[in-house]
Design goal:
The complex is a heterodimer of chains A (362) and B (480). With 362 residues, chain A is mostly helical. Chain A has one domain: Ribonucleotide Reductase, subunit A, CATH 1.10.620. Chain A has 15 helices and no strands. Chain B is mainly α and 480 residues long. The chains are: A mainly alpha (362), B mainly alpha (480).
Chain lengths: 362, 480
C-alpha cells in the first residue's frame, strides 16, 4: 500500500511547536511590584518587603510562598500554624540577615595556635566543659528543626531564622569539640543535662519550645558565654566565647521578641507560658545552691569552679565566681522576661532562682 | 596591748581585712565564733562587703551562738521554719554554717524545701571541713576516655576531619547510645533517651560529610551584599515574569528542603555528628536559596509567580526513611534543580543573575555529593536493598514526570527564558534548548546514580525520561 504524500510530509517535517498556554503570564493576574534598589546594607529583606503586608491569619495547606499565586489544584503538603502570633517575631528578618553576615568558621577564624598547654586539672576541666557544651549545643538545632514543617511559608522569616540557628548550633557543637582535641586533652564524661534537654524536645507547641529553649536555656548559656573570660586562658578561647555569644544573642533576641509578640497579641496565653517556665525552671534549678553548684549538672559546675578558680586549689574562689555566674544568669533571665512583658515572673519564679534575684529596677 | 585570749590573725587574712577596711577586732570576733580562716577570707573578699555589714553579721552570730558553741534559733526564724516545715535541727546547721537570719528566713519563705536545703548544707559542711575541694565529686576527671590528643591546624585550618584521631576516629556501624553524648565521651547511666530513630551508620553516613561541612562554611556567601544588584536592569515584561516564575519555583523548593531535612535531623543519633553538621549547612543553604530568589523576584518589577502543583513535594515529604528521602531529594530533585541553575546561568541577563546561579550551583553540588556518597555507602552495606532503592526512584521519577506535565508555568517560563520571548520562533528555539537541558540533566542524574552504585538505573528509568538517555553506540559488528 502506498504511503500518502500528506503523511509522508508530516513524518518528514518537524511538528509545529505547540502554542504555549501563558495564562500564568497574563498581566492582569500576575503581581507587579516596584523596582527596588539595594540600600546601605545591600539588598536586604527590609528593602524588598517594604510596604508589603504579612497577614495575621493564613489558611495554609501547601508550600505556597507568601505572595505567590495560589493554584486551586495544588495538593496539600501538611498542616501548618494558621496564626501569625504562633510563630512570629518582629526581629526575625533582621536576625536572619545578621546571621548571614556574621557567619564564622571554627576552622579558620579561631587562633588555635594561641592555645598553649595548661596544668592537668585545668585542661581536664576545660575538656569537661567542652564535652558538656558539645553535648548540649545541638539540642538547639534538633529542637527548632522539628518545628519547621509546621510553620507556613507565609511566615518564611521565622523559617529562615530557624535555619540559620541550626547552622549556628552546628558550629557550636563543632568548635567545642575541636577545643577538646587541640591541647593534649580529649572528651570526658557525658553531662547530666538529659532531663532538661528532654523538656525542650518534648514541647508540643512552637511558643513552648521557644520560651524554654530560646529564652530560658539559651539565655543561661549566653550568660555563661558572656562571662567567658572567667573560663578562658588564651585568645583562642576568648574568641570562641565571643563568637558563640554573638550567635546566641540572636537566638535569644528571637525568643524574647516572639514571647513579646504572643503576649501582646494573645494575652490569654500568659498563664500557659508561666506553666512552661515552671517546668523548665524546675529540673535545672532543683538543687541550685548558694555556692552556685547545681545538683542537676554537678560535673559542669565543678569544671567551672576549677576553671574560674585557676585550678583545683582555687575552687573556693571558683565557687564564688560560679555563684556570680549563676546570679548573672538568673538576673539576665528575669530581665529578658521583663522585656518580653512577663515581669510578674519575678514573684513566681522557682525559689532557688528567686533567691538569686537582685531587687527590681525602678 | 593584744588580748592574750584572742586568736592570732594570719598575715594574709589581716591583709584582706586591711584592704577592705575591716577592723581586725571584727576578724578576731569571727574567728572566736569558730569560722574557718579561709571562710572569713572568702566572705571579706566578696564585693560590697563593708565594716558595717561585717559588724552587723558578727553581732547577729554572737547572739545566736552560745559560749559552748551551741546554736539558738531566734524566735522569728523559728516561727517561719515551723510554718514551712523546716526541722529546727536543719535551721541550726544552716546558722552554724554562717547563714544570716534574714537570708535564711527569705529562703524558707521563697519555698525552698528542707530536703533541697539539706543537700546544700551537707555540701557546705564538707566544704567547711576540708575546703570546697573536698566537697567536689570529680569523678569526671578520671573517666577512661582517650587523653592526650593534640591536633594542630593544617593548611585549611582546624577541620572536623582532622580531629577524628585515635579512638575518636572510630565511627561504629551501630551507635548504641540514645542520649546526646558526643562520640568518644564516657557514658553515664540513667540519662533519658532523646528518642532518635536512626542508629545505624549505613542509614545516614557519607564519607564526604565532614569535608562538605567545612567547604560549606568556607564558601559561604551573602545574598544582600555579595551580588551586584545594581546590574539588574528592567527586562521585557514576559522575560521578567518568566524569571520570577523560576524564582518562585526555587523559593518553594528551598523551603520544602528545609522542612524535610529539619524533620529528619532530630531522628539522627549523635554518634554521627559529621552528618548532622553537614546537613545543618545544607539547611542554611536552603534558607539562602529562598532568600536569593525571593529577593530577585521582588527587586525588578516582577513579583512572585504561581505556586507549583506540589505532587513532587509529596514524593519527598512522604518518604518514610532517610535514605529514601535523600535519594529523592538530594539526587533526583537536586539534579533537576542543578539543571535549572545551569539553564539560568546560560540565560542570565546580567552579572547579578549569572553570579546568583553560579553560587547556587556550588551549594547544590554539595547536596548532590552528599546524596551520592550516602547512597553509595548505603548500597555497599545493604546490597540486598538495591531493588528497594529502585522502587523509591521509580515512584519519585513517576511523580516528577507527572508534576512536570501539570506544572505549565515553570515549563513555559523556562522556554521563554531560553528562547528570549514568546514569538513563535522564540518559543520553538526555547523548546529545542529545553530539550537539550533536559537531556543533560537526565544524563547527569543517571551518571550520579551510577557513581552511587546504581549503573543499572539507565535501564529502569521512567519511560518518559528514557528518551533522553544516551544509548551506547553500536559496535560495527552489531551494526552489520
Amino acid at each position: 500500500m502506498a504511503i500518502s504524500p500528506d503523511l509522508l510530509h508530516k513524518v518528514s517535517t518537524e511538528e509545529d511547536p505547540p502554542e504555549l498556554d501563558l495564562s500564568w503570564l497574563q498581566p492582569r493576574e500576575a503581581q507587579q511590584v516596584e523596582r527596588v534598589r539595594a540600600g546601605r546594607r545591600g539588598m536586604t529583606f527590609d528593602e524588598v518587603e517594604r510596604g508589603r503586608e504579612v497577614p495575621d491569619h493564613v489558611n495554609a495547606f501547601t508550600l505556597r510562598p507568601r505572595d505567590a499565586r495560589r493554584r486551586e489544584d495544588a495538593v496539600r503538603t501538611g498542616q501548618y500554624y494558621s496564626d501569625k502570633s504562633d510563630v512570629w517575631s518582629e526581629n526575625a528578618r533582621l536576625l536572619y540577615e545578621e546571621a548571614v553576615q556574621r557567619q564564622w568558621s571554627s576552622a579558620t577564624d579561631i587562633p588555635w595556635e594561641k592555645v598553649t598547654p595548661l596544668p592537668d586539672d585545668l585542661e581536664r576541666a576545660m575538656c569537661q566543659l567542652c564535652t558538656f557544651l558539645t553535648e548540649v549545643e545541638f539540642i538547639a538545632g534538633d529542637a527548632p528543626a522539628q518545628w519547621l514543617p509546621k510553620i507556613p511559608n507565609d511566615y518564611y522569616e521565622t523559617k529562615l531564622f530557624i535555619l540559620s540557628q541550626i547552622m549556628d548550633e552546628a558550629r557550636h557543637l563543632d568548635v567545642f569539640r575541636k577545643r577538646a582535641f587541640v591541647n593534649g586533652g580529649g572528651l570526658l564524661s557525658e553531662g547530666q543535662s538529659g532531663p532538661s534537654l528532654r523538656i525542650i524536645l518534648d514541647a508540643k507547641d512552637f511558643t513552648e519550645m521557644s520560651a524554654i529553649m530560646h529564652v530560658f536555656a539559651e539565655g543561661f548559656v549566653q550568660s555563661l558565654f558572656r562571662t567567658g573570660e572567667l573560663v578562658s586562658f588564651n585568645e583562642a578561647e576568648k574568641a570562641i566565647y565571643r563568637l558563640c555569644a554573638q550567635d546566641e544573642s540572636r537566638h535569644l533576641g528571637f525568643g524574647v521578641m516572639h514571647l513579646k509578640y504572643i503576649l501582646d497579641t494573645v494575652p490569654e496565653r500568659r498563664e500557659e507560658i508561666h506553666h512552661y517556665l515552671d517546668q523548665v525552671e524546675g529540673p535545672l534549678s532543683l538543687d541550685i545552691t548558694q555556692a552556685g553548684a547545681s545538683g542537676a549538672t554537678p560535673f559542669f559546675d565543678e569544671a567551672i569552679m576549677i576553671l574560674a578558680g585557676g585550678g583545683l586549689k582555687g575552687v573556693d574562689k571558683g565557687a564564688e565566681r560560679l555563684m556570680e555566674v549563676r546570679k548573672k544568669q538568673v538576673n539576665e533571665y528575669m530581665h529578658r522576661l521583663e522585656v518580653a512583658g512577663l515581669g510578674e515572673r519575678r514573684d513566681r519564679m522557682n525559689p532557688f532562682f528567686r533567691s538569686l534575684l537582685d531587687p527590681p529596677r525602678n | 596591748m593584744a588580748d592574750a585570749a584572742a586568736p592570732d590573725i594570719p598575715e594574709d587574712l589581716a591583709q584582706v581585712a586591711q584592704e577592705k577596711s575591716i577592723p581586725l577586732e571584727l576578724v578576731r570576733r569571727a574567728m572566736a565564733l569558730g569560722f574557718p580562716v579561709e571562710a572569713i577570707k572568702m566572705q571579706m573578699s566578696q564585693p560590697g562587703v563593708t565594716a558595717e555589714a561585717a559588724e552587723q553579721f558578727i553581732a547577729e552570730q554572737e547572739k545566736i551562738r552560745g559560749a559552748g558553741g551551741e546554736i539558738s534559733v531566734p524566735p522569728e526564724l523559728k516561727a517561719i521554719a515551723d510554718e514551712f516545715g523546716w526541722p529546727e535541727e536543719l535551721v541550726k546547721r544552716a546558722l552554724k554554717l554562717g547563714a544570716g537570719v534574714d537570708m535564711l528566713m527569705n529562703q524558707i519563705k521563697a519555698g525552698i524545701r528542707p530536703d533541697q536545703a539539706e543537700r546544700f548544707i551537707e555540701q557546705q559542711e564538707r566544704a567547711q571541713q576540708g575546703g570546697m575541694e573536698a566537697a567536689l565529686d570529680l569523678s569526671w576527671m578520671k573517666v577512661p576516655t582517650e587523653w592526650g590528643i593534640r591536633v594542630r591546624p593544617g593548611k585549611k585550618g582546624l577541620t572536623v576531619g582532622m580531629i577524628n584521631v585515635g579512638t575518636y576516629a572510630d565511627i561504629p556501624d551501630v551507635w548504641p547510645y540514645h542520649t546526646e553524648m558526643p562520640r568518644g565521651a564516657y557514658p553515664l547511666a540513667g540519662i533519658p533517651t532523646m528518642g532518635y530513630t536512626i542508629y545505624e551508620k549505613a542509614e545516614l553516613w557519607a564519607d564526604n560529610c565532614a569535608d562538605l561541612y567545612e567547604e560549606a562554611i568556607q564558601r559561604r556567601w551573602r545574598p544582600a551584599t555579595d551580588i551586584p544588584w545594581d546590574t539588574v536592569e528592567p527586562l521585557p515584561d514576559e522575560i521578567e515574569k518568566a524569571m520570577c516564575q523560576v524564582c518562585t519555583y526555587l523559593c518553594e523548593k528551598g523551603l520544602l528542603a528545609g522542612d524535610v531535612v529539619g524533620k529528619w535531623l532530630p531522628e539522627m543519633s549523635y554518634g554521627y555528628h559529621e552528618v548532622k553538621l553537614y546537613l545543618s549547612t545544607a539547611e542554611f543553604d536552603y534558607a539562602r536559596q529562598f532568600e536569593i530568589f525571593r529577593k530577585r523576584a521582588l527587586s525588578n518589577g516582577g513579583g512572585m509567580g504561581m505556586q507549583s502543583p506540589g505532587y513532587f513535594h509529596r514524593a519527598i515529604i512522604d518518604a518514610r526513611g532517610w535514605t529514601e528521602t535523600s535519594a529523592v531529594l538530594h539526587i533526583l530533585s537536586n539534579s533537576f534543580v542543578m539543571g535549572i541553575y545551569q539553564l539560568g546561568e546560560y540565560t542570565a541577563h546580567n552579572e547579578a543573575e549569572s553570579l546568583i546561579y553560579r553560587l547556587c550551583m556550588q551549594d547544590v553540588a554539595r547536596q548532590l555529593a552528599y546524596g551520592v556518597q550516602h547512597l553509595k555507602y548505603f548500597l555497599s552495606r545493604h546490597q540486598d536493598r538495591r531493588a528497594e532503592v529502585h522502587n523509591y526512584l521509580n515512584k519519585g521519577e513517576a511523580i516528577f514526570v507527572f508534576e512536570e506535565e501539570k506544572d505549565t508555568p515553570i515549563k513555559e517560563a523556562l522556554i521563554i527564558l531560553l528562547g528570549g520571548g514568546t514569538s513563535g520562533e522564540q518559543v520553538a528555539d526555547g523548546m529545542s534548548k529545553l530539550e537539550y537541558f533536559r537531556t543533560r540533566w537526565v544524563r547527569d542524574y543517571l551518571a550520579r546514580l551510577a557513581a552511587a552504585g546504581l549503573p543499572d538505573r539507565r535501564e529502569k528509568i521512567h519511560p518518559s525520561l528514557k528518551k533522553y538517555v544516551q544509548q551506547p553506540e553500536k559496535t560495527e559488528a552489531q551494526a552489520a
